[in-house]
Amino acid sequence: MELKVYNVNGSETGRTINLDDSIFAIEPNEHAIYLDCKQYLADNRQGTAKAKERSENAHSTRKLKRQKGTGGARSGDLKSPVFVGGGTIFGPKPRDYRFKLNIKVKRLARRSALSAKVAENCLTVVENFTLSAPKTKDMVKILNNLNVADKKSLIVIENQNNFVSLSARNIQGVKVVNVSELNTYDILNCKNIILSEGSINEINRVLATK
Fold first, then answer.
1. What DSSP designation does 65 have?
2. How far apart (Å, rounded) are the C-alpha atoms in residues 24 and 195?
3. Is the dihedral angle over the CA atoms 76, 77, 79, 82 positive or is it negative?
4. In whole angstroms, how far apart are CA 57 and each of 88, 90, 92?
5. How far apart are alpha carbons 125 and 17 in whole angstroms?
6. 10 Å Cβ neighbour count for 195?
7. pLDDT at residue 209 is higher than 80
């Protein structure tokens, strides 16, 4: 599969780049995508929610009423979950939500997500991001030139580039990641993906079928 390569002015360079069909043109595996997104969201959960149980509430243990002769059920102390302010039954406790996912499934999910974006014509290849300084207005101009300024976009670069990251930091709906940080959730959570030309080889290396 071949895609046209654009420059930061939004013009075609007259060149095309060949994309690996095993990464960018496979039949998306929806279950792998679901598992990888689920793991990503679980890894980002703090897991610090906590509710007090019966034994942790600070209430008097005095008997509230006599046991017999009232016509109602027996009652314990105010710590009982049946009373307002009592303990919580099976409430949340601090826990780790993370779980293990096979690396082959994660690679398959990323390949599936990228293939889905290519099928939707939502992937653009830019030869490079030539920024002489971190300026938001320069990045906004580039996005306007590529006709993606009003859309949620993910910019993928091959190496850490502070000029690109800082220039896009204050633009709503735009996220910049290295190839090593690329994940299925971010791919699906954007309308357009902008790949630097240099990132293609790195993506091929990371997501190659092994």
1. S
2. 12
3. positive
4. 9, 14, 15
5. 8
6. 26
7. no
The residue type at 198: G
pTM of the model: 0.83
Cα–Cα dist 129/125, whole Å: 11
Q: Which fold has domain 2-45+98-207?
A: Ribosomal Protein L4; Chain: A; (3.40.1370)
Taking phi over 0 as left and psi of -120 to 50 as alpha, with beta for the rest, 132 belongs to: alpha
Banded model confidence at residue 130, pLDDT cuts 50, 70, 90: confident
Residue the block writes with tokens 């102390």: 77
Q: Residues 6 or more apart from 34 whose CB is under 8 A from it?
A: none
- CA–CA distance, 50 with 53 (Å, rounded to integer): 9
Q: Which pLDDT value is given to residue 114?
A: 96
Judge contact between 115 and 26, C-beta under 8 A: yes
E strands, 129-181, in order: 153-157, 174-178
User: Token pair of 97, please?
Assistant: 């939500």
Q: Where are the domains of the chain?
A: 2-45+98-207, 48-96
Tokens of 58: 């600070």
